[in-house]
Structures are given as C-alpha cells and as structure tokens.
Amino acid sequence: MLGRRNSQMGSTHIENRSILVVGLGRFGTAAARTLGELGEDVLGVDRDPAIIARWSGKVPVMEADLTDPLAVEQINASNFDAALVAIGDSVEASILTTGNLLDAGIPDVWAKSISRQHTRILQRIGASHVFRPETDGGKRVGHLLASRYLDYIEIEGPYSVVKVLTPYAVCGQTIAEADVHGRYGVSVIGVKNPGEEFQYGSNDIVMKHNGEIIILGSQKQIDRFIES
Fold first, then answer.
1. Which helix (H) or strand (E) holds 94?
2. Which residues are CB-neighbours of 216 under 8 A, at least 6 positions away?
3. Which of 208, 211, 153, 160 shows the shortest CA–CA distance to 187?
4. Do 191 and 213 touch, CB atoms closer than 8 A?
5. Phi, psi of 106 (to 5 degrees)
6. In the chain, N or C terminus with fewer CB closer than 10 Å?
C-alpha cells in the first residue's frame, strides 16, 4: 500500500508524493496517468467494477466506495499525501468522499466541481483546491497536483509553458549569466520578482529568490531546470 512520504525542500526540488485519485472517468484517469508519468505514487479508486477492470494494468487501481468512512479506513487513506476527488456523476458522492478524506487527515484534497453551488460546498467543507472541468483539464491538474508547477499550459508537440518558482541555482543571476537556454534547454518567457512588475524574459533580467519564472521547454528540460 502506498504511504505518505515527507516532502524535503532542497532548493525547489520536490520529492514524489503518494496521491489518491477517486473517480476514474475521463478526467480522473487523465490526471492519474499524468501523475504516474511524472513519477508520483498513484492509486486510482472507483466503485464501479467495470471501470476498475478497464484500467487495471494501466494505472494502480482499487475498487472501493469512499462515501463509506469504513472503506476510507480500509484503504489506509490517511497515509496519502494528497487526494484528487474526480467524481462527476454525483454531487452527493463527491461531497461525502471529500469530507471523508478530509476527516481521514489527508492534508491536500483537490475536488472536481460541476456547478457553482457544488464549488461553494466543497470550499466550505475544507477542500484545498476546487476546479471546474470546463476550465481545467485532467492532464493540467495532474501537473499542478504533482506540485512541480505553479501553472501549466500544454502546447502543440512535446513542449509546455509552465510557471515555476525561481530555482535556487539561478537566483541572483541574469538570464544571460545563468545561460538558462544553453544549460537546460528552456527559454525564459517572463519573470515576476517579489515586489516588482512582470518583465519579459530579456537577457539582462535578474532572477531573484522567491520569484516566479514562466518558461518554455520539453518535460525533461523543464524538470532539469527546476531541480537545479
């Protein structure tokens, strides 16, 4: 069984986490598969045995109805670092499941909403993040939930645009001094330093500690940069 692992913050590197994904429709499976590709320890849960059979072997899965607190105990939900409630066919099941996972002590619970009223209820019971499928794709949420990016946009081909915290290795350097493109292969589109206005990524811009950088690159290039 997956278990919670302590996140160790060394510069901006974030160790993989154990993440529970509840509800394996299109959205949930897209998020679960993305999380797995990013190296997270993922367990997908659904109460429909046909769905479990469909995804068995593609992602780690388990059949369970987490609207039942006993089922939450049986899968040791309290050991997970985070959870994504991607249930879209029942507001009641979504709310009960979210509440049960929060009661179990999972510190970071994300929940899918299908209406404004649903969003308000999920926020009131304590969900860390509430999102709407009209505006957030499952793959994007997977990247954000993995805690590597502050924001993520997939573009055509192997490249993505992401917003990340300034890696420790380049703090205090200009884009040119850090040779960001030469060393990591990424392009800096813009920089938002603390207390300053957003600036486009010209070579003389200094990247400061606790700042935010928008970069373009492949998955491998981006990961190498943020782990520097």
1. helix 91-103
2. 159, 160, 161, 186, 187, 189
3. 160
4. yes
5. -65, 125
6. N
Q: What's phi and psi for 204, nearest 5 deg?
A: -90, 5
What are 117's two structure tokens?
Answer: 């009223």
Helices and strands: H and E segment counts in the chain: 9, 13
Residue 170 forms beta bridges with which residues?
A: none
Q: Measure the CA–CA gap between 74 and 124, rounded to whole angstroms.
A: 26
Phi, psi of 210, rounded to the nearest 5 degrees: 65, 15
- 202 phi/psi in degrees, rounded to 5: -80, 160
Instruction: Give the CA diameter of the chain.
Output: 58
Q: Residue 118 phi/psi, 5° resolution?
A: -60, -45
Q: How far apart are CA 200 and CA 204, in angstroms?
A: 10
| Cα 7 to Cα 12: distance, rounded to the nearest angstrom | 11
Question: What is the C-alpha to C-alpha distance for residues 2 and 91, in angstroms, rounded to an integer?
Answer: 27
Residues 6 or more apart whose CB falls under 8 angstroms from that of 114 comprise 88, 91, 94, 132, 133
* Global confidence as pTM: 0.61
Consecutive 10-residue runs of the chain (228 residues): their mean pLDDT?
A: 42 68 92 88 95 90 96 96 92 95 95 89 92 64 62 63 85 92 90 90 90 85 81
- Closest CA relative to residue 79, chosen from 57, 58, 107, 113: 107
What token pair was written down for 186? Answer: 């990424």
